[in-house]
Amino acid sequence: MIAAIIAGLLYFGVVFSLAFVLGVARALVVAPWLGTTAAVLNEMPIVVSASFVAARHLLRRRPLSLPQRDAMGGLGFALTMASEAVLAGLIRDQSTGHWAAELFTPLGMAGLAGQLAFGAMPLLIKPTNHQTG
Fold first, then answer.
1. Which range marks the domain in which residue 66 is found?
2. If pLDDT is split at 50, 70 and 90, which confidence band does 65 have?
3. Is the separation of the CB atoms in 51 and 118 below 8 Å?
4. Global pTM?
5. Which of the listed residues 30, 70, 104, 119 has the most CB atoms within 10 Å of its CB?
């Protein structure tokens, strides 16, 4: 299970770092030009694609069983959600409740769908000959 935790931490770190940089660019450059909704919807396929690439790379380097891949994605998802809640408080001065309520708006649900895709991605990667599960 240690391998799954390490993979989950790496997976989160790589994808969240990219998403953070893209989020800053979205907020400062793209959203004023396209609007918030269009900016988020344009960013999402990039982050989901990066999730696929990162998960595939990590799983090729260290094959994991299906339960381990589930733990990897679950840990990445949990860390992403916790980080989003913390950053909403630090950057936008939002309470956790307000942040959570925004998840139930149309734009919030679209973002949550992308985050769920990120969490599920390790399960969606076709195992190599060395992977089990």
1. 2-124
2. very high
3. yes
4. 0.90
5. 119
